[in-house]
Amino acid sequence: MPKISKINLRQLFAKGMKPSQEAFYNLFDSFWHKDDQIDIAAVKDLQLSLNSKLDNAAKDSLLDAFNDALTDIHQAVESEFKGILNPTGMAPTEDGSYKPAVSSELDKPTDPTSTLDWGTKYPNAGNLRSKQGYSTMFYKKGTVWTKSETKIDVNSEKYDKTSAAVGNYPDFANPNKMTLPNAGFTLEQGNNTLPATLRYWQSPALLKDRYIVKIRAKATAIGNVNIFIHKKSDMSLDRTIQVNVTSQIFEYVFTEPIDSDLYYVMFSSGIMYYAFNGGTPVKQMLVATGEWSENPTIALCVEYFTYHSAILPKTLTVAQRLDLLESRETKSFQWSNIMLDKTELLSKIVKESINSVFTIDSGIINITSIGDGLGIVVANNIYLNKRCFEFDVKLSDINTKMYFGTKPTENQVGSATYSVDFSTKKINNTFDFSTLIDVNINDSYSISMSYKISETTIRIRNKRTTQEALYTFKPTTDEFDQYKVGFMSGGGSISKMKIYSMAKERPYIMFFGDSIMRGSNNNPLNKRFADLCGTFLGKEYLISGRAVGNIDGLMNRLAIEIPCFRPRYVCITIGTNGGNTEAKLNAMIDFCEGYGCTVILNHIPLYDSSTAAKNAMIANVVNSRKLMSIRYDIATSIGFDATTKDNSCFSNESGIFIHPNEKGNQQIFDRSKIDMEEVFINAGAA
């Protein structure tokens, strides 16, 4: 029998769920084997909910009979079913049932009382038609074709109509994984024909427990475009929807909402924005309209999806919920501490003159101009408190001078630039490594820039001689957003660029947020709440905080960091700087939960007259989704009343009290033991 910890059982009961008899006995089975300490107070009131239950023998007998009947039905259906039928395919020769692959509203009469048939015609199935919005099956018996069709009830226990939210396409996780182009196809090249297999689809993680109901897209011409619905289980095509596009901006509302837990939504290349007109490359076309991004994969045809939260089926029993929760707790995820790994030789990144243009073939590295010279910027936003940026360079000039650091993109806070001068053999024009490393033409060097608790270490290593130099210092500016590297003089080639964390194992918890989570103006920095909490838990943890951050920038971070690390818990504090909406908060939670993470969405500390409304919004999401939430507002208020701000809990920044100081962070940590008790219990630190 599956086991369940008492803290998770309490959570289920808090959500109004009553236990089945099986779940009740699981508690005592767990206690009997001494592998979970069940507090009798947690189960003493369960008897009332068990009075009307079948005993186990009767229940098992009924369930066995029901399961046997289902097995017989499944076997019969599988023996009859012959496969998916396309309207242009060969006529089947075997008797049996066939599912039509394409449905449409072709020839649909305007009169709702009309008896005329409509939908996609199947000449290979006796000219039967498949209507959009209906569940249809064709049957062949000899030369006779028949069909069954049932209108799909889009409002039947599927989604909450009040939960509409919009997902902008560029916000989805890792757009580089959203294409399936033919070999050799790039957006930089102009072709008169487009690969037939090019597809775009929605991110599966962001839409967990969602139904996609609408899509908005751009087109360059009128005509037909196909929407493909693929099964997530095996990527097989489930059905095709043909849409007649009559204007550049069009919206399509799915007659049957698409369950994002089961299906991908893909789009044919056809006439979309990444198509070509007369051999004009899409980059050139989008530059003309001012919509081009230097990351080609961001040039998307689809603007957004509209989706709704799913309603859990009434048939989901407590035992099933327990099993799902148990599976989620024990499932072993593959994790990686590497967030970027470009191992190929980027030999074209060579400075030829001050006005030279570098060319590379990667969708994740952008070409740009920075400071005194030209260089590259890594497109991923990285904020981790323990991280390293590393690259190899092979010198072609003894007088080469390079710069590297970070480029702020979310806002203008956090620009850090450092230098290595191979001619003077100095780092930042101060640290002399002339006695430590040989500098020779055509030698390759590994250069890394690591950051840990506001301390930066620059390492240079001659890969041939293995000599190395380390220079550690406290940077005067923050290191936020995107890494950059380039040449100020001389030249060379760059290869093997990598960004990774210093985590030694999959993090138990990750802390995300703005400057409050980062611990800005809290001295010492390692006394911030997140460090106090992580140290007390005794588990691997990471912090990802950004000064002047908001939820939009946070989503960019989550898209890079969550898929790599997949922590068990994600603790988020965001909203002081504005920008929150319930739709964005829910999308953020969906994304994290899609990777198996339990979200703790915190109230923000008291600041000004806008805080109450911001916390009310957070509370609505927390309460509706039954989340844990650390009450920063209680922890930093006088008498812990959540309304009267205690300025002694904040740093005095010229009369502004916004960032918790050491006292404030300690009180937030103390409060966390109450508000996220589960995290401490499951870590064995309670």
UniProtKB/TrEMBL annotation:
It comes from the Bacteria. Residues 84-119 are annotated as: Disordered. GO terms for molecular function: hydrolase activity, acting on ester bonds. This is Uncharacterized protein. It comes from Chryseobacterium ureilyticum.
